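Same chain as my last thread, 303 residues:
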Amino acid sequence: MDGPQDQIETEGYVVIAFDDPRYLDLAANLALSIRRTEHRPISVLVNPAVPINPAYNGLFDRVIVVPDDPTVRGAMNKMRLSEFTPYARTMYIDADCLLFSPRIEFFWRRYRGHPFAVEGHKQASGPAFACSLGEKDAGALCDMFDVPFITVFNAGVIYFERSDASKAVFARVRELYNGPRKDTISYSYKHAGEYADEPFFGVALATLGIAPFEPPLTQRLQVTTPNLAEAEMDIDTGTLNVVKRLPNGKPQAWSGVLCHFCGLAPMDIYFPLADKLRREAGLPPMERAQFQPVVLTQTQSSH
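reply #2:
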């Protein structure tokens, strides 16, 4: 196990597996999908609650044990990424994602030189960061922080570079999280004391003037599964095409290179893909009963 400052490598992937060993299983599936198409190293951040499964030895280039911060729970640990990444240029990916295509190289090149990059949209009014646990009003947040828009995005993928500008983003997130308007900015998430991370990052990016990348829905880095109506996913051919049915009934076509199976849904697609990757690596299949009906990642309905 290495510490983040032992060696600063150029580029690499980071995934977090805190608190529950099941996250490490998901992180292993992500790593298997990356290694199928990619040469860049992969690091996993674990906390003391997650033992390292010997079956995953060699799958991660680095296993970095992060000390617990009693003031931070769950998804908010993303604001600690800059402290523990071993890379000068980091692509953070949630554990419940799978990489489908080597076209991710295009996004590494597109984002290079940007201190902090996310894929989403600018929003000045209406409900934002909506999920079944809550939502926030973009206009109210704009008024509160005197900004023209809020950066709305799914934090399943975050790219950042080792720079003062990216450190300012993480510092701003922590400032907002520790500040008096914490409950106005975000909402309680899955567990007691846990908050949704995206509103904090969205406000931080807006106050720092960092707009999201806004590619066409058919040219995405990240495709998310909420509101899924149809899907064409083939990890051998790199095919990732979906149709989403919006709440108003309108269909949307999305295509990309990386699928974020929010809440592992649809499970009848995620588990066969994960088991295929594991079978190719000589690993046992997923123990599906351990993941049902427990949902590890809350579904985001808006992005």
